[in-house]
Fold this sequence. Notes:
alpha+beta, eight-stranded mixed beta sheet
Amino acid sequence: MRFGVLVFAAAAAAGVLAAEGGNANQNSLKPLDSHLFHSLNKISPPIVLPDQTRALYTTSRYDPEKNKSFSFLSLLDTVSGESTQLTPEMEGERISSPMWLNENTAGYVFKGALYQHNLQPNINGTLFYNTTVGISSATYRAATGQLFFLADVYSDGNISSVAGYKEKEKNRTDSAQVFDNLWARHWNKWMTPVKANLFSVKVPLAENGGLGQAAREVNLMQGLAPSVDPLLRWEAEGYAVSSDGQHAAYVVRSPSPDLSWSTNVDIYLVPCNGSGQPELLTEAYKGAASNPVFSADGSALAWLQMETPGYESDIRRIFVRNITTGQTHSVARDWDLSPHFMIWSADSSVLYTLVQSRGDSKVVTVNVLTGARAELTGSGYIASIARLGTDRLLAVYTNTTETHDIYTIGVNSVGAPMRRLTQANREKLHDVYLGEAEDFWFAGARNEQVHGWMVRPHGFNASQKYPLALLIHGGPQQASGHAFSYAQWNPNMYASAGFVTVQINFHGSPGYGQNFTDSIRQQWGGLPYEDLMKGMDHVIATYGFVDAQRLVALGGSFGGYMANWLNANTDRFSALVAHDGEFNLISGYYSTDELWFAEHDIGGVPFTANGRPNYERFNPERLAAKFKTPTLFVHGASDFRLSLEQSLAPWTLLRRRGIPARLVYFENEDHWINHAGNSVRWYSEVLGWISQWTTSPPAPSHG
Length: 703
């Protein structure tokens, strides 16, 4: 994505279970402080055993006092809800890829190697498979004894030769990197000859449950056409394997000269034993394909397909292909929402999809023949789903006041109660204030209804007035959601710091129909800005406890762009925070990694007479003389989506003009804050900054 998802939000999710933060008597609850927030347990999506009675999942946490991270593997009884910790807490790299090797043996990846575990509590696993390079994104098919994984290899595609290539690199006498293609860097990495390829290998379990004899690895991408430029070779972005281990489907970008301005992402189908050539399934479309998933019986493959070239936020259509006949058809083309994940039902007649809808992430069933749909869940945020037998799903669910936990969902009736199986943070949050979101709607740009919500501050007293923090989401074709975020934009962190916290899904946000999402094209500083201003007017007029003289606005990525646009167009905010935002749309175009985004969203290219006005129209730098609001700028050194200069420039502008401004620079971060210790510092700087500019004795409320 051009501007990554930097904002995850919150909203009401009533009627599921009581919140983890007990809010009955708010005055007796503690605020959510930064150290506690960063120490919360985070669980992974569960992996279900074929007998449907057990599942594996991982838990990770950060210890702020030790500045170390830990993780462990757990076994969940899906009938009783009892969890058993299988491994001790492991320090450092997170345990990943939990899997079932057979009904009595679990597997997991740690530090690039696969381990097996006999399901006994609190013991370390034993080595099951290892290579000279680390593996990731692994899965196992017990029926065929095949292991599938991604591994970084050089142009010959062989794991065995990686060490030799690395030795040659180590003995080079220069450090030059030479590029003849614009796809020279992406997100946070410069392109190198090393690419992630999909491998399969036979590693059967021995009769005693021990390590079997591994065969030679098979590179399932070897049949793809060779690339002229070794820096632009094929690289797997995801994959799926049929339950019988016969077929795999993987997601790749074609290594063409136009990678920087093309959204063409394809899916190939290949036999898992490497006996046949990869078959391109998506040749008819030049948009991005994603999320391949095989039916339970392996007879069909479904995937999500964008059809508009160059538009990364196009609606995702569902396609289904019969593996035997090759016939492909599109499902539910009348649907105006865009699913982002899906799995098959046990009888292969229905797809269970996840889709954003009005701030929620819902489970929606889609009949693969008729396209008929039904919503299974209501408010709140379903983060992942797995099939649990024929009549249930195992889901990870969250909302504003509840961190991510595992639930079961019945699939035979709409709105069936969800049953909670885990409570990952009950002990940590039982006496902590977590404010529920209060939804509101207002007439925004074009007089269309726009959705937002508010979280009241810790220790709320209706007779007092409070400062307000407006959190502006990134994307821009992303949306704040009714979820508990572990990242930088959790509304309860701001509410616990004493702010009324508001989030608004302005024009461009998904979940409100594709036309609403598409409307932001060539309107970056237009419709969203109008929505935010009218939203602030609505909140101030509706909630008498909001102090209109103490408003701050914060955003990352597109939200950081909007903070700069606010600085040039309004003086209603006491302070702003721009995290990895954009200040100059023209220089931003020339320095970004993905040109397709600007060319579609802003309109054309800035070096033509037709395109240049589109870039100037909503360019904050054009209005630099109007900047007046104290601003905190945050940027990571390895952000190649929006380079460091996009924060250095407005920081220089404000400092040179004598306007208070601060720059927080993270040399080991990119577009996001990935290191927990840096996140602690991030919150310290940001909350300190907005508090500094809104501190005053509470004034009596007038309504």
